[in-house]
Amino acid sequence: MNIILLSGGSGKRLWPLSNEIRSKQFIRLFKDEQGEYESMVQRVYRQIRTADPEANVTIATSKTQVSAIRNQLGNAVSVCVEPMRRDTFPAIALAAAYLRYEEGVGEEETAVVCPVDPYVENSYFENLKKLDELAKNGEARLVLMGIEPDSPSEKYGYIIPEDKEFVSSVKAFKEKPDTATAEGYLAQGALWNAGVFAFKLSYVLDIARRAVDFEDYRDLYLKYDKLPKISFDYAVVEKEPSIRVMRYFGEWKDVGTWNTMAEAMADKTKGNVMLDETAENVHVVNELDIPILVMGGKDMIIAASGDGILVADKERSGSMKPYVEKIVTDVRFAEKSWGSITVVDAEPGSVTMKVVMKPGTRMSYHSHELRNEIWTVLSGRGMTVVDDMEQQIGPGDVVSVAAGCRHTVIADTDLTLLEIQIGSEISAADKKKYELNGALFIDDAPDRWNE
Amino acid sequence: MNIILLSGGSGKRLWPLSNEIRSKQFIRLFKDEQGEYESMVQRVYRQIRTADPEANVTIATSKTQVSAIRNQLGNAVSVCVEPMRRDTFPAIALAAAYLRYEEGVGEEETAVVCPVDPYVENSYFENLKKLDELAKNGEARLVLMGIEPDSPSEKYGYIIPEDKEFVSSVKAFKEKPDTATAEGYLAQGALWNAGVFAFKLSYVLDIARRAVDFEDYRDLYLKYDKLPKISFDYAVVEKEPSIRVMRYFGEWKDVGTWNTMAEAMADKTKGNVMLDETAENVHVVNELDIPILVMGGKDMIIAASGDGILVADKERSGSMKPYVEKIVTDVRFAEKSWGSITVVDAEPGSVTMKVVMKPGTRMSYHSHELRNEIWTVLSGRGMTVVDDMEQQIGPGDVVSVAAGCRHTVIADTDLTLLEIQIGSEISAADKKKYELNGALFIDDAPDRWNE
Predict the structure, then answer these.
(1) What is the average per-residue pLDDT within B65-82?
(2) How do residues A213-225 score in pLDDT, each as one tens digit?
């Protein structure tokens, strides 16, 4: 099965754990079968592998997520990166072209598209296989999976099927309704539209070809801005007469808010947390290395990260977006392909970050115009390269990098260092990348056209 | 007026803002007349100066508080440091000897003793002057100030006076009662015993002389362990037949818990805090540099510092002591005579702290056996001395100090540096102090026998 996972969003509704560069699907609050914490993307990937060990997984995403995907899934998945944010139709078209032209998947072979962030049971992925079969067998040009609703929710679009069979034709698609209207839909056997569909590659590629003339993946990548900025639902699904929908009866949760996330969390607390015995239905996630003590409280979510601290009534937490948008903070934590960075101090003229690298990884070879950097190794061993000068490094070693100097760090073991940036203007944009030893190593680049 | 302020306690009941080295009286949650934040000790000192600009203020305390006192009050007060913790009788006897022998106060002159941590109105200190007058005029050998109770509290000891006059003799002292008993006391016109008394120096010095033979302050300091470990109430007050009590009718608050502190706080929030409009009777103190967002919640106190984060029902917060005692964390913030230190990162083998120095100050000249230190200047100018080698420092400069090397920092301007400590065993005890330029500069030393 070829599966395209759509990994989008830079939601603030799970602030302070999600931010502009860390989407909710990368927060590790679930647990795998060995009891290790895992994120949504790790959970979904594991479930896919369980349902189909041979699955060919491609993640369609934006550039900002590549580091986190590589950090969490390694190189086992293909990552198809949109050159700019447009919408789901261009993203799916590009992913189809990636499968067709980069991976050599046949035009008449099928692909299943689904979002990366539903919290579901394993049977969901068994159903995807059935969906894939339906597409393969030509059941229709487009086959959807609809979620059997457990309530007349106002949060989702609805699919009205012709009948209540396991697989049926589609009578209509409906936008998010009010509750009364939703109740009417449910009486007709309606399903939630969860953005899951299967098709033959030729089907999507032909639609894309009608929008823009392209030869292969690289060509479409370069012409990406010519594709209409429109959702797959509007561009394709709602216009398609040859369409069938299959029912999914299992657990399906949209963990888009702290209230729903709390229900799905593996443990009531994560991190350094002490709850007294009078705390009632209180969930706490602590990513800081200082303790949180909770005395009393009811129906609350408490979450702390380097970005900030949230203390909220669970009910109220769904309304936090406008408040979070008022909070202007620089991102203080980011996963990189080679590890992570955490800002430990920031003041005018300097930023200090803790850099944690995995063994055998390296940063890009780069320079900054407007800041000096001073690295102090806290633990581990590796090498620095500064203006082509190599230096072995270990605990206590200090390496100074003046503005304008090219520099990188290569980790031999787990390597932790403190990077002190000093300059009047410190910004992520002040970065220029170079070749090192003849190779342009681009730490976050998923493919050769991504820079 | 000679006034002895007793500054004790290392309470955990205002955790995470109070800890072993930062007592509640140093937390800045009140505001002075200019709207600047001030601590309890700053507030009390300001109120004393308002009531009596000529007051001679001596703070009797332990070594751990000297840095914070100097940081907050400068050198305007005398600090009398007990060589070890014993109890209030030895502390008051030592302070009396300090006044007599170090400051040359006459044996027949008076002193007023009061705790440093009551939240009171200015009239309290006007009353202290009256109390001092009573002692001066020989009203009794010992004169007390009692607090007019506003409730039959179980939290305080009671003074039962002979009558309900403004100044009266004392019939009895009572330990903390239950509420019913307290109600009986109130019917008799009883007062709270708030540990405020005035006497002639000779009175206390003679009692101390009966316990241990000493010649002067220095002699008593060296024989301090011979003084009985007993409270002034038990050792002196409850045995004294010549005793009178004066009533205080004004506001008097014991801000020993978050519940009472919240009532006394100048503002509902302090620091980087956003409260939504549904939060009800929620107080938030944020000493971290990341934002706290509160959505909903009722009757809560939220407090965050480098030591940890508290989220508590106000009622419950009074019961936090056993929980806080289970939290074992190294102190992450400390006020020093020359500024402050804040731990920004700690892991096995290294501790990184931000050091903020005031202009014109210096650390002690010291060394460590088991750790190297690396200083990186973030902002400001000054000088380092490492094994007698002087070096001017400014932003971006790095100074490495190997284990065994003597070192100090002298700040010319406001100076901020990052100190990275690297070693297998990093402890505050690993510190040896030296003379620099012929002077043994002891940053925290209140007097010449304190090291």
Answers:
(1) 90
(2) 999 999 999 999 9
Of B308, B348, B350, nearest to A293 by CB-CB distance is B308
**Distance in angstroms (rounded) separating the CA atoms of residues A405 and A437:** 16
Residues of A in contact with B291 (CB under 8 A): 308-309, 327, 329
Token pair for residue B378? Answer: 């973030």
Spatial distance between the Cα atoms of A247 and A148, rounded to a whole number of angstroms: 6
ipTM over 0.95: no
Question: Which parts of chain A have pLDDT scores under 50?
Answer: 439-451
* pLDDT tens per residue across span B301-321: 999 998 899 999 998 888 888
Full-model pTM: 0.83
- Per-residue pLDDT of A14-55, as tens digits, reads 999 987 778 889 999 999 989 999 999 999 999 999 999 999
Is the separation of the CB atoms in B182 and B154 below 8 Å? yes
Phi, psi (deg, nearest 5) at residue B323: -70, -45
- Chain B 341-370, residues with CB within 8 Å of chain A CB atoms: 344-350, 352, 354
The interface residues of chain A toward chain B in range 364-403, judged by CB-CB distance below 8 A, are 372, 374, 376, 378-379, 395-396, 398, 400
Q: Which long-range contacts (CB under 8 A, 24 or more apart) does B41-46 make?
A: B41/B5, B41/B7, B41/B68, B41/B69, B41/B72, B41/B73, B41/B116, B41/B117, B42/B72, B42/B73, B43/B119, B44/B5, B44/B116, B44/B117, B44/B118, B45/B5, B45/B73, B45/B76, B45/B77
Calpha distance A99→A134 (Å, rounded): 20
- Which residue type sits at A52? D
Q: Is A311 on the interface with B (CB under 8 A)?
A: yes
Contact by Cβ (8 Å): B233, B248: no
